[in-house]
Amino acid sequence: MRLRAAPGRPRVTSENRKGLRSLEPYPETRGPRVSEEREQPVLRAPSHAPLRSSEEPAHHAHAGRRRLLLAVAMGLVAGTVYVGLRSAIHDDTPAPPSGSVSTSADVGAEAAVRRATAGELLLQQMSSAIAGGDRAAFTGIVDPDATTFAPEAQQVFENLQALPLASIVMRYVSDNPHQLPADRRREIGGQEAWLAQVEVSWRLTGFDPQPVRLTVPMTLVTRDGSTYLSSLSDQVRPGQRRPFWLLGKIRAVRGERSLVVSLDPKADLVAYARTVDSAIESVTAVWGPNWRRTVVLYLPRTQSQMEYVLGARQHTYDQIAAVTTAEADERSVGVPVRIVANPARFMSLGTQGRRIVLTHETTHVASRATASAVPLWFAEGFADYVAFKAVHVPTGSAAKELLAAVRDGKGPKMLPEPAAFSASSKQLAIAYEGSWLACQLIATKYGEDKLVRLYRTVHASRSPNGMRDGFRTVLNTTQEQFADDWLRYLRRLADE
């Protein structure tokens, strides 16, 4: 994460758009603006239905073969929930004797199997329609009586068509027939309406080593013998993650090695893709080429949308310009990672500030910081070291708050603790600046190659003392000695 651009940084502009291409298959439409305070974590209908452009995006070049493979993959998972439920309910239970009366538990079990079977079939149809770009088939699974939801569902379909999907699979996880309030069930109507928890797995071509997996609540209804999708917004819990493509109309642009996906209709995605591509080059120059060298950037329109993607409560990230995060709740290596901008903070930085932030966050992507035991001060300081090497800013400007505190006798006494990096911490800026100068000191005294080697060593360590061991084996010093050197370094810089 990075908070802000330091004052006095020159603005940088460029018109070079080489290697950038739009992935958006529809021309932009603008619906009514929704204030952040009233915004809900669901789609809003656009002012009119967008039309398909005559030029298909490049990722559709092999769409026929991709769709066939996706359909086969989804066919392999169809019915798994039905089989699992049937096994769990019946395998170890003897059949009731002839003429016996079914208990309420039997009726409940049969209803659960019925819902799961109908739901799994619906999800297979939904996934197949998305993978095949079949709008008519997708429309056919949407509740015909849910007139308000219908345009929202169509927006979901269009959003997923705008992404370079390699695969998408939906799996029925569980349901609770009583989780929908009685008045909501009456409003929906039909023979039965219920809330299902659905695991949606999707992977982006060229960017994701494995699928993203998120659980999405979906309201299903059976009417006239058929089961339909009736809502994607019932019972969304505070702090529950939401896929970016469920939050509004998206646009996508692909750069040389970047993908920028935006909910902001005014954002210059081509410029952002170019900036991310430059950040990838800057990070590779320091870290080396041994990483995927691809980055996905999400540009929400509001901070609320950012917090839905992160699964955070409102106003958690008021001070933060951008965050690098695994898109699922998992934190293991290989889980797809995204950079998510906080629009108000991010836009206030200016061109050069945004480049610094995106280089910082791209460093986190390259160094796998979301699945690393590297101490926060080292991870954040290293990311700032790479960013400020790419865009030079005088030390007095980039560490203004920290050096002022040192001059006033209120500077740090030790390397920053994890709590100092909390989004609500009053010492957040000082923690970042001190961490950056710690990494700058390592690079200056021992060499940049030793700084990178130290990071890699600590990241690979399985020991709880990985940082201490790294100081000894890579730098031939102790953590305590380094901390003393760092404090003297801060005092020297403050006196300059």
- What's the rounded overall pLDDT mean? 83
The end-to-end span amounts to 28 Å
- The arrangement of helices and strands along the chain is EHHHHHEHEEEEEHEHEEHHHHHHHHH
**Shape by Cα distribution:** elongated
Largest sheet, if any? 6 strands, mixed
Biggest sheet: strands side by side, in what order? Answer: 1-6-7-8-10-9
Summarize the structure.
With 496 residues, the protein is α+β, with helices and mostly antiparallel strands.
What does this structure look like?
The protein has 496 residues and is of the alpha+beta class. It has 3 domains: 42-94 and 104-236, Nuclear Transport Factor 2, Chain: A (Roll), CATH 3.10.450.50; 244-370, Zincin-like; 372-496, no CATH class. It is 44% helix and 14% strand. The protein is built from 17 helices and 10 strands. α2 packs antiparallel against α3, α7 (269-287) packs across α11 and α10 (350-366) crosses α11 (376-390). It is elongated, with a radius of gyration of 26 Å.
